[in-house]
Amino acid sequence: MSSSVRVLVADDHPAFRAGLQLMLASSDWVEVVGLAESGDEAVAKGLELAPDVVVMDLRMPGLDGIEATRRLLAIDPSVGVLVLTMFEDDESVFSAMRAGARGYLLKGADQDEILRAIRAVAAGEVLLGQSVAVRVIEHFARGDGSSRAAFPSLTEREREVLELIAAGRGNAAIAHDLMLSLKTVRNHVSNIFGKLQVPDRSAAIVKARDAGFGAAARRPG
Question: Is the residue at 150 inside a domain?
Answer without folding.
Answer: no
